[in-house]
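Entry 14. Two folds queued back to back today. First construct below, sequence then structure tokens.
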Amino acid sequence: MERKRFDIRTDAKLLLKRNEKLQKFIEPYSFDNRTTYIDYTNTPVIKYKIFDGYDKLITGFSTKIGGVSKAHLYSLNLSFSRGDDESNVIENHKRFAKALGYDYTRLVFSDQVHDTHIRVIDSEEDAGKGMIKVSDIKETDGLLTNLPNIPLMTFYADCVPIYFYDKEKQVIGMAHSGWRGTVADIAGKMVKKMTEVYKCNPADIICAIGPSICKKCYEVDDVVIDKVKERYNEDEYKLIVEEKQNGKYQLDLHLACRINLMNAGILENNIAMPDLCTCCNNNILYSHRASNGKRGNLAAVMMLKE
């Protein structure tokens, strides 16, 4: 009897599920002790355990499995800015939205420039900006709303996604935090904006730091470290930076973001740390470093339900 051949292109979701235990987890996490899980019901979606049980919340993070994009964009590229065919990106959004249960035509996109501007989405007119409407949301790395049925989306391929959810006020926020956004404290500015606009109490805000590049993979130079030294005190610096003999440094953006959140009043138990590194797991996640820039974009999404 001829043995059936396994086709990674058609059976990628099955392959991902079979090999999930072989993923490279960020210490101290493992397959049996992790902060995330992958929902395989439709297109694979990474979800955070910390948000489970909140019926009014939809949240997820994409992999690069389950879409229709080709070549170095294979296969679930969710960005219109990577040179992909528009029809491919739209189909990918349809699949990802179906897996999570939101209307993709109502997505609101960030316009990321590694800064700290945060846009409050406070009108139904904002729904669809970036997805099906020309957007006036420019140079914006953070999105914030208390409106239901408007999914917020930010984009990644190593930088740090941060999710914010006030379970009492029913407010959500998304922040894109690369090294520049981290040292400029976009996380703290998001908490401040939530308290100013919606009267949120930081003690009620639940956060998750999403899949992104880990300390082991993130080597930086003096240009970055000089800014880190300006931002963090001596004890914090020692926690997030490993100095090497070659004049380079390993930077822990995850821990830096947690420090920023806690300094803004978020409780430590209300912060979920990432267990997956995009660079270590570039077989299932897009990584700018691992691919030398030849890649699609992952996405983080968050939406309130009525």
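Second construct, same run, same settings:
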Amino acid sequence: MNAAAHSGSVAPPAPGRGAAPLLELEGLTRRFGGLTAVDRCSFAIEAGRITGMIGPNGAGKTTIFSMVAGALRPSAGRILFDGEDIGGVPTHRLFHRGIVRTFQIPHEFGRLTVLENLMAVPAAQPGERLWPVWLSPRAVARREREVRERAEDALRFLTLWELRDELAMHLSGGQKKLLELGRAMMTSPRLVLLDEPGAGVNPTLLARLREMILELNRERGYTFVVIEHDMDFIASLCERVIVLSQGAVLTEGPMERVRRDPRVLDAYLGGDEENEGATGTGTPAGGDASRAGTAAGRAAGEGHGGALGAGATDPGESPP
């Protein structure tokens, strides 16, 4: 899809956003035995921005997400969130601090309805315990009404309202991506890590997804980091792009400058050794010029499996 299909250029920054980084990586490293998936990687994510993360297969993108979300412990280096080192902090604690992650392949609660999938997300619901149900039924009912209203608002925003009573297992792949975004909305997140939100999504739905991400950023101040291989999608969505290669930052900046950088083209189109990367998958970067809009193309997906939320593990980044 070309950039015009994504409704134009990147939106201007939302008012009131400062320059202080929300997330900082300092010399972040992750090894799997003798393989180094992330190699002394350092960059910062500014609060209230939409930042893209691109790179060929095995560049370390999903491994970085896994460490930031707490699913993997760093081998070395620091992960600073609001100035505090969160490296190795359990995933459920990071969830409560507002770090939410999605995966390339969504894992919804298939036998729950679309509405129930969203209502299951908020933490510390009194109805989840036996004694409050007996001793404080009004408080339980009040909290459930609040959660339901919030879930219904999210479904209307996502244009999934008509499917609210449908079992989630019956949704299309694109609708499941919207459902994952809705589950993120139920947490009032401070940092949302989106792993290939456009994978398997048709062009019409992808354009809608882009507008929803932009609105959540502008109106609610969500900070997004987006892994994606669709270069036009990234260019129309992100103010800044970080390019990874072989586990380290190759370059960063506006997409228009990055996509013309010879080092970026070389990273995507280089020999097999470069494209295999640290994960040892051996999958070549590949290319789909009709979607990427550049010679870099659309690399094959790096992330695999999992469910939304910081607490999910990522089998795609298991040691070889």
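Quick look at the second one. The chain is about 35% helix and 20% strand. Residues 69 and 310 are 5 Å apart (CA to CA).
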